[in-house]
Amino acid sequence: MIIELLQAAADEAAPKNSFGFIQAMEEGGPIAWAIFGVMVIMSIGSFYILITKYLEQRKIFNQYSDVQGPFWRTNSLKEGATKLEKNSAWRQLVDDALKADDEHGKMTDKLEAHDWMHGSLSRSEAAINAKLAGGLPFLASVGATAPFVGLLGTVIGIYRALIAIGLAGSASIDKVAGPVGEALIMTAIGLLVAVPAVLAYNWLSARNKKISGMLSGFSTDILAYINSNGSVKPATMAARAPAKAPAGKPAAAKPAAGTAAGAKPKA
Length: 267
Prior knowledge:
Helices cover 72% and strands 0% of the residues. With 267 residues, the protein is mainly alpha-helical. The chain has a domain at 85-139 and 185-236. Helix 2 (21-68) runs parallel beside helix 7 and helix 6 runs antiparallel to helix 7 (173-227). The protein is rod-shaped and about 90 Å long.
């Protein structure tokens, strides 16, 4: 009974310290909260760019099926443009090509006309690629700087821990755990913000390169179509039906086995 009373009295006299995220951030003070707020903004911006750019890329990939099929089955580029969705990357290339085709008549040299059309399509491609690449520099910046922002919080936390040790005169756990915990949490948050940003940047950049190649091929096909007056068209996705024999002309009979072509059969 006496031992239990002494133990209860010791528990009441011992300091009750609670350690957690909020307590660690409070130990860091306004600087820790400011650094945490910056990294939250970085993380939200990274995921916003990831989602919006993915939706833009998926839309372009889905519209490519119309380019491979209905567009090239039409009789002219103007008619084919009506088969494409408005305000799309593919429609922009076709519209710019038609505009350049109308303006190239002012060129006195055929070579200059070809260069003008090629340059117009190149500018259109560059504008589309620049729009798709918008926001990717932010992802690269977050991936490169977020670990260092977290490291800044780590340095501040370690500094506060050393100050607490110096003021207390002893390295007791209750004086050191708070600032050190805040320092470690900042490092972890910096990595959690940087890693998704780097992965998103690499993934979106790879998809942009694929789209850029598709746009370049489509521009080449349009240029060839215009310069050949519609004679040169790329192969479409539609399966081609086999050629039929002319009506009224039966198919030629195959020579019998063992009979040479052109030789007369023996009586």
